[in-house]
């Protein structure tokens, strides 16, 4: 079971919001990435959250720097619209790419990319909002645009097209600390033969265990539960990053719902409950 810190990036900054909205600057992503690597992250996810809006991914410099210093798999998403875009990001140092908007608009891109670069390189990111009738709709453009597509059906289709993994983000839960949408994750996990990464909502260690034990996820992607702990522990001393927005965090509504924790603490919690995972990062190589 993998624990994957998610770093949402806007311009040069790490940002965080609620329901993928209201983004506020936390600091420089390279600093956080290094911290999580040293703390035992299994992988990292970099997501350019405005890339689809502007029609380009702007993370190449950050990816290149990260790839020189961090030796765990790195997934990069946002604004990747073609095989050339994917090739460019992989050459910059990414190990995998996450496709959402382009995959929905042109599903054959998933098939072509899997054939060209290998299924293990292609992650289909599915951003989901629960409808009043209990069904789920897939969204694109970092949760800004409706598609009218049933998220469960799209997950099945993405797996058939050759995706190596599915990153399933509950927009309803994202940034809230209320826990993952376990029912959604479980339904998709039980229906496909590829790994499902649960994303959106972790506020307690218990939530991460629930995503695995009840949601059947093969990995969890977390942000707030890690970022805010980093900010509160080192941000006040201004020794970690001058860009950390501690004032915003301390005033954030619902902030108290998200407990401070660390990657080693998450791994210990999972291991104590019988969930196999790699307890401590010891270095290694890309991919």
CATH architecture assignment name: Alpha-Beta Barrel
- Range of helix content: 25-40%
Could you spell the SSE succession in H and E letters?
EEEHEHHEHEHHEEEHEHEHEHHH
How much is the radius of gyration in Å?
A: 17 Å
Topology-level CATH name: TIM Barrel
By secondary-structure content and strand pairing, the structural class works out as alpha/beta
Shape: globular
| CATH H-level superfamily title | Aldolase class I
| Beta-strand segment tally | 12
How is the largest sheet built, in terms of strand order?
1-4-5-6-7-10-11-12
CATH class: Alpha Beta
N-to-C terminal Cα separation, in Å?
16 Å
Q: In total, how many domains does the architecture comprise?
A: 1
Unreliable stretches, pLDDT < 50, 5 or more residues?
236-240, 281-287
Give the DSSP E fraction (strand runs of 2 or more residues).
15-25%
Number of helices: 12
């Amino acid at each position: 079971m993998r624990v994957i810190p998610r770093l949402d990036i806007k311009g040069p900054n790490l940002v965080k919001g609620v329901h993928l909205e209201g983004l506020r600057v936390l600091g420089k992503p390279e600093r956080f990435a290094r911290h999580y690597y040293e703390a035992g992250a299994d992988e990292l996810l970099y997501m350019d959250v405005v890339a689809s809006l502007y029609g380009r991914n702007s993370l190449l410099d950050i990816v290149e720097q990260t790839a020189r210093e961090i030796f765990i798999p790195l997934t990069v998403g946002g604004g990747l619209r073609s095989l050339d875009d994917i090739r460019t990001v992989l050459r910059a140092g990414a190990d995998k790419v996450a496709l959402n908007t382009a995959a929905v608009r042109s599903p054959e891109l998933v098939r072509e990319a899997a054939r060209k670069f290998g299924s293990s390189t292609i992650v289909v990111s599915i951003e989901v909002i629960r409808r009043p009738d209990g069904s789920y709709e897939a969204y694109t453009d970092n949760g800004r645009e409706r598609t009218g597509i049933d998220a469960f059906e799209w997950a099945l289709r993405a797996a058939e097209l050759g995706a190596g993994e599915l990153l399933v983000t509950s927009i309803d839960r994202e940034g809230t600390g209320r826990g993952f949408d376990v029912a959604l994750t479980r339904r998709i996990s039980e229906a496909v033969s590829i790994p499902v990464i649960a994303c959106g909502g972790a506020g307690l260690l218990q939530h991460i265990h629930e995503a695995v034990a009840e949601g059947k996820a093969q990995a969890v992607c977390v942000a707030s539960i890690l970022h805010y702990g980093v900010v509160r522990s080192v941000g006040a001393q201004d020794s970690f990053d001058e860009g950390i927005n501690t004032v915003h965090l301390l005033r954030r509504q619902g902030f108290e719902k998200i407990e401070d924790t660390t990657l080693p603490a998450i791994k210990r919690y999972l291991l104590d409950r019988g969930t196999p995972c790699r307890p401590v990062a010891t270095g290694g190589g890309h991919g």
